[in-house]
Design brief:
By secondary structure, the protein is an alpha/beta fold. Helix 4 runs parallel beside helix 5. The structure holds NADP nicotinamide-adenine-dinucleotide phosphate.
Length: 259
């Protein structure tokens, strides 16, 4: 009998998939038997990541696609569908963070840069994949999972990173709307809200003793999260085990939000 979390036969697209959380999720999806395509800006890093993904023995691919480029995104979706036959799961994960010392230092340029990737790029990717999923449903093959990478900062204030939190709040709002609009096509949409996950994105804080003593150590699971900590949740949301699970935002934060 097929395992509840078996992803064989499913094609999964992960944006921002060449490192950090995206790569760990891509590896988790491949380890669960899924075919995986990653998109990320840096072609060399994509090649490196692909080597890692190939070890799981499923079909894998990578493309140097910037999610803010509307044409590249629509052509990229066409290419994945052409080469892999379909897209069952999108992990819309690509994101950037440009924290500033204070909200008062926040320039309109920084505000727009972060919005361009985390909100507009997210929207473009999800829209193009949903077009494909709906078309497939119209042809009698419904189904699909959209996994939106939000953040705990969507609901928990982060000084100097209000603009980032705003983009992650936008992901929550869009995920809920999409879940309602596309449920009739068998498409599920859920958001993940990671807490403190140790990646290059926050490397300036890895050796921050005050942050460790005052926050990280005091959390119920008193350590930084690792990118691999996210993989199981993504596998679940992509799998048929989650067939009745839609429209939610799941905190994955070592219990931080419970305090
Ligand atoms: P990361 O290590 O910096 O990885 C993000 C990846 O996305 C990078 O490879 C980055 O490429 C890529 N990317 C950026 N802009 C892109 C674009 N326009 N098109 C395609 N790819 C793009 O960060 P991470 O920590 O793994 O974060 C992954 C996601 O989780 C992000 O959405 C982030 O906001 C979210 N998140 C992270 C944490 C955390 O604690 N780490 C917590 C909550 C949420 P470049 O580096 O070349 O720009």
């Amino acid at each position: 009998m097929k395992s509840l979390f078996d992803l064989s036969g499913k094609v999964n697209l992960v944006t921002g998939g060449s490192r950090g959380i995206g790569l760990a999720i891509a590896e988790g999806l491949a380890a669960a038997g899924g075919d995986v395509v990653i998109w990320d800006i840096d072609a060399d890093r994509n090649t490196q990541a692909l080597k890692q993904l190939e070890q799981h023995g499923t079909r894998v691919g990578a493309a140097p696609i910037d999610v803010t480029n509307e044409l590249a995104v629509s052509q990229g979706v066409e290419t994945v569908v052409g080469e892999f036959g379909r897209i069952d799961t999108l992990v819309a994960n690509a994101g950037i963070s440009k924290a500033v010392p204070s909200f008062l230092d926040l320039s309109i340029d920084t505000f727009r840069d972060v919005s361009a990737v985390n909100m507009e790029g997210w929207f473009l990717t999800v829209r193009e994949v949903l077009k494909h999923m709906k078309e497939r449903a119209d042809q009698g093959d419904p189904g699909g999972a959209i996994i939106g990478q939000s953040s705990l900062q969507a609901t928990h204030g982060s000084p100097g990173n209000e603009h980032y939190g705003a983009t992650k709040g936008a992901v929550l709002a869009m995920i809920k709307g999409i879940a309602v609009e596309f449920g009739r096509y068998g498409i599920r949409a859920n958001a993940i809200m990671p807490g403190f996950i140790k990646t290059d994105m926050n490397k300036r804080n890895h050796d921050n003793i005050a942050l460790y003593e005052k926050v990280i150590k005091r959390m119920p699971i008193g350590r930084w999260g690792t990118p691999q900590d996210l993989a199981g949740l993504a596998v679940y949301l992509a799998s048929d085990a989650a067939c009745y699970h839609s429209g939610t935002a799941i905190e994955l934060d070592g219990g931080y939000a419970a305090m």
